[in-house]
Structure to design on (189 residues):
């Protein structure tokens, strides 16, 4: 049974590594960004609202995001483990997640942070922007998203204080970084 949070700045390879890790551990990969994007492409009410924030690189309001995560973690497949990617991102979300897990009688096993330096990230994202077609991949929005992410440092220290934070160097090939993550995890390494 594995319950993980996966954190890292935009462009750190978080999505790729999170997908591989969840597959390897046989747990659902729950990405709030992916859920929002799916809603945007389906044109749901949630999607229309989320898009207005995502296009500016801003966070979707906590009450909307929190309700979505509470629903998702309550689903059957998430009861035996999950890898939560891109959430929590605010102190309010940290507290909400504590409450959701308390209500479910569950505890986190680890919080993985992929560490990559800022200018390397911006270079990677500008390259991805050439092909992604994402409307939030302009240079201005990319820089803004990095600044917004840097405000999550205080969340990481909350998890570090709880002894849950596992920091992994995110520079290298996909397999190399995945091996580092697996080796660093208490239960999978
Ligand atoms: P991501 O794919 O994780 O970079 O997320 C893309 C966008 O979705 C973000 O820039 C936010 O607008 C929104 N988003 C994803 N996760 C959250 C979250 N936990 N809280 C608020 N907004 C979020």
């Amino acid at each position: 049974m594995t319950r993980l949070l996966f954190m890292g700045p935009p462009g750190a390879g978080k999505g790729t590594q999170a997908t591989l890790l969840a597959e390897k551990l046989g747990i659902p990969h729950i990405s709030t960004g992916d859920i929002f994007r799916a809603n945007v492409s389906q044109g749901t009410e949630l999607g229309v609202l989320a898009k207005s924030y995502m296009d500016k690189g801003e966070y979707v309001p906590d009450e909307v995001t929190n309700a979505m995560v509470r629903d998702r973690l309550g689903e059957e497949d998430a009861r035996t483990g999950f890898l939560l990617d891109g959430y929590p991102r605010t102190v309010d979300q940290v507290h909400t997640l504590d409450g959701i897990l308390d209500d479910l009688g569950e505890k986190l096993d680890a919080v993985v942070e992929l560490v990559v330096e800022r200018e390397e990230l911006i270079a990677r994202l500008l390259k991805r922007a050439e092909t992604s077609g994402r409307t939030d991949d302009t240079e201005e929005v990319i820089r803004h998203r990095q600044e917004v992410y840097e405000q999550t440092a205080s969340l990481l220290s909350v998890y570090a204080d709880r002894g849950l934070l596992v920091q992994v160097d995110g520079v290298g090939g996909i397999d190399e970084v995945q091996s580092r993550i697996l080796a660093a995890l208490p239960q999978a390494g």
